[in-house]
Amino acid sequence: MAEHSLKPATPAPHRGAGPAATAVRSGAKGAGPVPDAARPTNGQRLARSIRRHRYAWAMVAPVVIVMVGIIGYPLVNGLWLSLTNANERNVAKTIGVNEIPATYELIGFENFSDVLTSGVFWDKLLWTLVWTIGCVGAHYLIGLALAVLLNRRIRGRGIYRVLLIMPWAVPPFVSAFAWRFLYNGDGGLFNAVLTSVGLPALDWLSEPGLARLSVMLVNIWIGIPFMMVAMLGALQSIPGELYEAAEMDGTSPWQRFRHVTLPGVRTVSMTVLLLGTVWTFNQFPIIFLVSGGGPGDSTEILVTYAYRLAFEGIRNYSVASTWGALILLILTVYAVIYRRVLRNNGEDVW
User: Fold this and answer.
1) Dist. CA 40–CA 350, nearest whole Å
2) Quick one: which of 166, 127, 147 has its CA closest to 283?
3) Residue 201 located in a structural domain
4) Is residue 220 part of a domain?
5) Domain with 292 in it: what CATH number?
6) Structurally, how many domains does the chain consist of?
7) Residue 202 domain-assigned?
8) Do residues 225 and 272 touch, judged by C-beta distance below 8 A?
9) Element (H, E) at 327
10) What is the pTM (predicted TM-score) of this model?
């Protein structure tokens, strides 16, 4: 046999081989990173996205412009004021025909240092956390329980759904004034019921501990419908075959709830708990309208206290802005940690 017939055949060079083809092949899976020169920049990706989805961008552009105007500008202005000593005395004002220019100065992070080293901020933060955790926990547990109940075939289910959604349909200020009337020490419904059964009347909004419990009950009553509707939608998305298979396996109702219902509503639960936490943390109208922050400042949460600094007494805009910036920072850190925990648990995150 001839020697040349035993040598392995040398593969023919691939058509198109060269530096460009090498760069393309290096981007294939397992072939190494794509050279930086071949990667599109952020600007190129944005321009490509605008060209590809120009109709969608045109539709959302008005909303984006309005959001930048009503959220972006106040946010930037608030952050700027938090770095100054602006207050009612040194901001620009017009008195008659005289225009007095602003005289406040940039003082760096002095406001942040003063607020964080004061006991007031930490006292308000502790109560705000208690308020948020207590209200959101009650919202979720009661809302889920009602959703499980209304997901069953019971007589009058539609009527119950409408009645339970009513607190959400009523404007918050109307609900707040209605509850304030119920808590009234002279002629309020709750004290009338207590005295009718021989129990002493209570100072619902005059005793600090009872006032805190009272405002939490109002917020829980208002927030339950949202959780109930969200959980009811999640429950109805669970395939009925899962429950039928679990019943054929002889599982108990608790086991079906634990191993079928809870995993089925987990994704929706994570989203609504995040939203509920942010909303409750910044729930201004309930505190302001029901208790007015009192007695004293016992029911003041962070946002209501920042409001009083900015708009009552000697208005201290810089310190109020500092409180606002700290609230934003707390919620941002919470959202980042929450998102990371979800991702580590294998959840789809936004």
Assistant:
1) 23
2) 127
3) yes
4) yes
5) 1.10.3720.10
6) 1
7) yes
8) no
9) helix 317-344
10) 0.78
Distance CA(139)–CA(167), nearest Å, equals 13
- 177 located within any domain: yes
The half-sphere exposure of 162 on its side-chain side, counting CA atoms within 13 A, is 3
Through-space distance between the first and last CA atoms of the chain, rounded to whole angstroms: 68
Gap between the Cα atoms of 64 and 276, Å rounded: 24
Which spans in the chain are helix H?
Answer: 19-26, 42-52, 54-67, 73-81, 110-116, 119-150, 157-169, 172-182, 189-196, 208-236, 240-248, 253-256, 262-281, 284-286, 302-311, 317-344
What is the rounded CA–CA span in Å between residue 262 and residue 268? 10
Cis peptide upstream of residue 295 (ω within 30 degrees of 0):
yes
Close Cβ partners of 100 (under 8 Å, ≥ 6 residues apart)? 92, 93, 94
Q: Exposed (0-12), middle (13-18) or buried (19+): which is 323, by Cβ within 10 Å?
A: buried
Neighbouring CB atoms inside 10 A of 271's CB total: 15
AA identity, residue 71: I
Domain around 223: 119-315
Along the chain (350 residues), what's the average pLDDT of each consecutive run of 10 residues? 42 45 45 62 80 85 87 91 91 84 90 92 94 95 92 81 80 88 87 90 90 94 91 91 90 91 90 90 91 89 93 90 94 89 72
